[in-house]
Amino acid sequence: MSTTVVVGVQWGDEGKGKFVDILAHDADIVVRFQGGNNAGHTLVVGDERTVLHLIPSGVLNPGKICVIGNGVVVDPAVLIEELTALRKRGYLADDACLKISDEAHLILPYHKSIDLARERLRGKGEIGTTGRGIGPAYEDKIARTGIRIVDLLDEVVFKEKLERNIEEKNHYLKAILREPGLDFATIYDAFRAHADRLRPYVTDTALYLHREIKAGRRVLFEGAQGTMLDVDHGTYPYVTSSNCVAGAVAAGAGIGAGAVRQVVGICKAYTTRVGNGPFPTEEHGDIGVRLRETGDEFGATTGRPRRCGWFDAVLVRQAARLNGLTGIALTKLDVLTGLDPLRICTAYRADGERYEHVPASVRVLDAAVPEYEDLPGWTEPLSHARKLEDLPANARRYVARLEELSDTPFTMISVGARREETIVLP
Ligand code: GDP
Ligand code: IMO
Ligand code: MG
Predict the structure, then answer these.
(1) How far is Cα 226 from Cα 243, in angstroms, rounded to an integer?
(2) What is the DSSP letter of 408?
(3) Residue 261's pLDDT is what?
(4) Per-residue confidence at 301, pLDDT binned at 50, 70, 90?
(5) Please, is 354 exposed, middle or buried when counting C-beta atoms within 10 Å of its C-beta (0-12, 13-18, 19+)?
(6) For ligand 2, what atom is nearest to the CA of residue 224?
(7) Does any ligand 2 atom lie closer than 6 A to the CB of residue 36?
(8) Can you say how many angstroms the Cα of residue 426 is from the centroid of all Cα atoms in its chain?
(9) Which of 71, 231, 294, 405 could be cross-linked to 313 through a Cys-Cys bond (beta carbons 3.0 to 4.6 Å apart)?
C-alpha cells in the first residue's frame, strides 16, 4: 500500500504546496482532507507561481487525480474560480481528474459574515482568522445544521435547508452581531448555478479512494494549516476549526485508520505564524524583520505579514509525536544565510517550571521564555545546493542538530521556492 500524508509541523505555511507538488510526481491521486480556502499553498514551477486554496497541489503534474474529501469545507465560488483559472492554463481538461466529495460541507455567505463580525466584536482579542467563514461552517457541521454538497445538488432539499438556515442566521446576525441580514433569493440563485457547474465532479470519494487504494494506486494526502493550528492539539483558541494532524485523514477522506503508511512533516528552518496567539520564539526586532523580508513571509491567502522567529524544537517534537511523523522535509534553509548566530529553542521556562513539551495553557505559553542553544551561521547562498555536501559545513551542522532535536529523520531539504531547489537525502 502506498499512502502518504503530508502535514504542516508548525503554524502553517511551511511549504506544503511545494512538497505535495514534488511528491505528487510519484503518486496517482492527491487528496485534500480538511480545512478550506483558508489554505494558501504556493507552487513555483518554471517561471510560474501558482497559489492554490482548495484544489490539491498535485494538479500541475499531468494525469493526476485530484480529490476534495469530505472533511474539507467548500466555498463553491472559490472552487469554481480556481478550477476555471487552472482549466484556462490547460490543467484539469478532463473532468475525471477532479473529484469532489458529496459529503463535504458548504461555506455559505452567512458563514463569512459571521466570521468577520465576530472578529470585529472580539477587538484586540481577535483570533486573526482568514475571514473565509471556516469556523462558522465547521460549527454548523458539528451542530448538524450544515448544508452538504449532496444537498446542493438536490433542489428541494437545498431550498428547504437554506430557507431554514437563512432565517436563523439572519436573526443571529441582526440581533446579536448587529449586522445586516442576507437575502435568500440572491444566495439561492447563485448556489443553483454553482450546483450545475460542480455536478460533474461530485461523487462518493471515500468509496472511490477505497477502491483505488485496494487496487494498489499511490495516494498522497495533502494537509492544510499546521499541527499548532489543530483544533484539539494547537494553541487553542488561536487555532483553526479542523483537525490538522495526520490522524484526521481517516475521517476527512473516509479511509481506514490503518491505511496510512508514511507521514511527512513539512517544517520551516525557523518559525512563522499569521494571526494572533502565543509564539514563544517570536522575534519582534531586526531579526524578525530580516526573516520576513528574506523569506518573503506574507500570507498566501490574505497577504498579511507573518510573524517570524527562531526554530522551536519543543513544538517540532510535539508535532512529531502527535502526527507519528516518519520523515521531515525541512524548508527555507536558504533564508537563514547571513544570520549569525542561529538560535534553536530546546525548552521553555514558565511559572518556575521547565517545559520540554508545549503546555496546553495559553497563559503559560504566553509567559514561556525559550531556552536557546546557539549555532554558528554561514554566509554562502544555498539555492544552488542539490546534495547535502553542497551545503556549507555550518549549514550541515545546523540541519543535523535540528534533526537530532526533532526525533524524526530528515528526508528532504528545501533551499528555494522552485521545484528543483531541493535536496533529497539518502
Ligand atoms: P504552504 O501553505 O505550507 O503550502 O506554504 P505557503 O505557500 O503558504 O508559504 C510558503 C512560501 O515559501 C511560498 O511562498 C513558497 O513559494 C516559499 N518556499 C517554499 N519553500 C521554500 C524554500 O525552501 N525557500 C524559499 N526561499 N522559499 C520557499
Ligand atoms: P496553509 O494551509 C497559516 C490561521 C489564521 C488564524 C487561524 C484561524 O496555507 O498553511 P481560520 O480562518 O482558519 O478560522 O483562521 O488559523 N490559518 C493559517 N495560518 N496557514 C494557513 O493555511 C492557515 N489557515 C488558517 O491566520 O490565525
Ligand atoms: Mg499557506
Answers:
(1) 9
(2) S
(3) 95
(4) confident
(5) exposed
(6) 2
(7) no
(8) 27
(9) 405
